[in-house]
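INPUT
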Amino acid sequence: MLHVKELTLNIPDTTKPRVVIIGGGFGGVNLAKNLSGKEFQVVMFDRQNYHGFWPLLYQVATAGLEPDAIAEPLRKMFDEEYEDFHFRQVKVTGVHPETKTVSTLVGDLPYDFLVIATGTKSNYFGNEQIKQYSFPLKQIPDALNLRSQLLQCFEQANMIKDPEVRQSLLNFVIVGGGPTGVELAGALAEMRKHVLPSDYPGMDFSRMNIYLVEGLDRVLPPMSPESSQTTKEYLEEVGINIKLNTLVESYDGKVVTFKGGEQIKTQTLIWAAGVSGAQIQGLPPEASDRGRYLVNTFNQIIGFPEIFAIGDIAFMKTEKYPRGHPGVAQPAIQQGKHLAKNLRHIIRREPLEPFEYFDKGSLAIIGRNRAVADLPKNKHLKGFIAWMAWLFVHVYYLIGFRNKLVVLTNWLYKFVTYENSTRLIIRPYIRKDDIAGQEFVRKQADLD
Amino acid sequence: MLHVKELTLNIPDTTKPRVVIIGGGFGGVNLAKNLSGKEFQVVMFDRQNYHGFWPLLYQVATAGLEPDAIAEPLRKMFDEEYEDFHFRQVKVTGVHPETKTVSTLVGDLPYDFLVIATGTKSNYFGNEQIKQYSFPLKQIPDALNLRSQLLQCFEQANMIKDPEVRQSLLNFVIVGGGPTGVELAGALAEMRKHVLPSDYPGMDFSRMNIYLVEGLDRVLPPMSPESSQTTKEYLEEVGINIKLNTLVESYDGKVVTFKGGEQIKTQTLIWAAGVSGAQIQGLPPEASDRGRYLVNTFNQIIGFPEIFAIGDIAFMKTEKYPRGHPGVAQPAIQQGKHLAKNLRHIIRREPLEPFEYFDKGSLAIIGRNRAVADLPKNKHLKGFIAWMAWLFVHVYYLIGFRNKLVVLTNWLYKFVTYENSTRLIIRPYIRKDDIAGQEFVRKQADLD
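OUTPUT
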C-alpha cells in the first residue's frame, strides 16, 4: 500500500450541486439511494468499504453468523445504475464551513451540501483503563475479536492449573443492559446450554457465569416497562446474573470493580454500556450537545444551513422526543430518506418539510421463543410471536439477497441442530495490550 | 488471555495406548476419525481450532466465499461421540524420541504413538525480502489479508495521481503455476470481467494485468500434459499473461525482478510458488529429505517405529511415486485412514499393511465452464463436464452440512448474478511491514 501523499480524491468537477455524505451507515445509505444523479453529484466517504447491519453484530460475536453475511460492500449497493455517485474509502479529518470544504486523509473537497452521518463510537466515559482492557462491540473486527476471545477462554479454561484463574476465564461480564447487552447475554446462554458441553466434554459449564450489568433500574431502558420486565424474566430463565443499578468503577484486565466495592474476577469484560457521537473536527462547540450535533427539524446543524446531521449523530429535540430520537436504525433510515426530499426542495427553492419520526416499534431477542416487541399504540408482544417477528424483521431489513439467503440458511441450520457454526478463532487484529501482555496468543501466532 | 506458565495440557492419565496427532488437517482428521476411543486415547494438537478445506482457500481470497464456509471447528468434528478424544489448541515445540515425549507451548506429554501431520508452509527458498513483501496463501488469515489487499488496490488505483503508480496497483503477479496459482488467476480474471467494471465505473480495467509466473515449462506441472495445454488455452482466453520458464530474482514491495532481468512494477506479488514441510524440532536430519520426513510404506519415520508422518509432510518413496505422493488432499486422507488400521494392527500384534495410494484423479478450475480433470487410466476431461465435476467433488468433500449449504448458496448466487459477494476489507492482521511502511492502512485504522 501507498503513502498518503501519493493519493488524491479524484472526484470529477461538476456543475450540479455536490452533496458530500460522511458515513455509509443506515442514514448515509438511505440518503444516497434517494438522491438522483441527474440533480446532484453525490460523494460518499467511509473508512470501511461496507455497510454493516449492526443489529446482527452480536451474532457474529457469538459464532452464529459469518461477518460477510451482515455487511454489504458499498460499491455493490451503489453500482453503475447510480449516476454521478462517487465512493471513496477514506477517513475524513475535518470540516471547514468557512470555505465549504471537507478534509480527508488524502485531500480536500469543496461541497455544496455536507451530510454528517457518522453514527456513534464506544463511550468509555474517560476511563482509559476500561478502554484498553474491555471488548467493544461496534465494528466487524470487534465482533471477530470477541468471538476469538470467547472461544479462547474455553480452550484455556480447559488447560488451566489454578481453579481461581479458571473461574475468571469462565466469568463473562457484559456491561450495558441495552439491546446489544441483552441479545449478547442471551446468545451466550444458548451457547452454554447447547454447544459448549459437547465441545468440552470434561468441563463443568454450571461454573460458567454470565453477568449483565446495567446502571439503571431495569434492562432495555429504551423499551417499555412491560417489555423490560418480560426480558428480565427471560434472562433469569436462561440463567443470566442481572445486576441493576450497578456502575463499573474500574477494570484492569483481571478484576472488575463496581461502584460500592463488589468485585468479579473476569478475563472478559464486554463494553456495551454507552456510545457517543463520532464527531468530525471543525464545528464550534455550540453546535453540539454531549457529542451529538444539534439539528433543527430539517436536520440542519444549528448555525450551518448547508451542513446536515442525520441518524445517531444528530440530536433533534422535539416535543415528543425531548432527548432526541432513539439510537436505532429506523430514525436514521427515515432521516436519510427525508433529507433527500429536503435537498431537492432546497435546489428547487421550495419550502422545506420538517422531519417527523414514525415509530414502527422495537424488538429484542433473548433466545429461541423468547423475544419482546413494543408496537405503536402501546401494544406489547412476547414469546413465540415476538420471536417470529424479530426473525422476520431482521431478514427483511438485511441488505442484499445473498445475505438474506445465507442468514436464513444459518438460522434454519441452527434451529434444527442448536449449533453455532462459525466457531473459528481468527484474530482480526492485535490490540496494543496483546502485544504487551498476551504472551499466549503471540507465541501461538509466531510462525517459524 | 493468560501467561503460558499458568497453563497445562490437562490430559487425563490412561492405561490405553496414547496416540498423539500433531495437526488437524486432512491426514490428522481422517486418522482420528478412524481410531476408536475404546482402544486408544487420542490427543490432537493444532495451533488453530479449525480444520480448513484448503482447496477452496483461493475463493476466500477472491471474495467468493466467507472464511467460515471452508473451515470446520475441530471440536465440532470431534464431539462427545468420540470417546477419550482430547483436542488442545496449542503449538507443538519439539519431539523427544528418547523419552517418547512431545513438548508444547504449555507442557510436555508422553506418547505411545506420535503422528506428525503438520502439512506444509510457504517456502521462499531463503529469500527474506520476498517473504516480507509477498502475499502467501496458506491460511485463512492469509486469504483475508489478500482479499483486503486486492480490494484496497482498486480503491487506491481510483485515487492515485501518478499513472505509473496506478499501473503498479493494477498489476497482479502470481508466482507459481500450480493449482493455487491457476485457480487464483482464473478467479481474478472473472472479477475483472464481471465485478470490477460495475464497482469502479470510471476505471479502465483493460489496464489491469494478471501475470502467472511458472518456473517450469508448463502450467499445472503435477497434471497431465493434455490438461496443462488446455489450462494454458483457458487462461489465455480469459486474458492471463502466462510467463513460463521464469524465476523470480527479487521483490522489494514495488518491483519484481525476474532472473534474466525483466521487471514488473506491482504492489501485489502473490507467492504460490513452493511449500516445504512444516517440520517439528527434535528428529535427526537423516530422517528428512528436503523438509519432509522419510517414511516406510507403513508411514513410520525411518529409524523411529513409534513416530509416523502422514500427508504432505511424509515422503514415501515407492516405485510408482519415486518423488513421493502429490501434495494434495487425497494421499493425506488415505494415509490417515490407513494408519488407523495399522495402529490397530500394532496393538493387536498383527502384521502391518503397506500403504497403497489410490489415485482418484485431479481437477483444476479456471472459471465458468472452464476446468480440467485427469482421471485414472489416462483419461482427461475439460470444459463444462470437468467444471461440473469440480463443483460436485468440492462440495462433496467439504466437511459439514452447513458449510455445504452455504457454499452451494454462494455458488448458485454467483452463477446467476456473476457477483463475488464477500468484498469486505477486513485486515486480519497487521504485518511487520504494514507497521513500518503502510501509512495509509494505519492512518485509516487509527481510531480517535
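end of record. The first strand of chain A starts at residue 18 and ends at 22.
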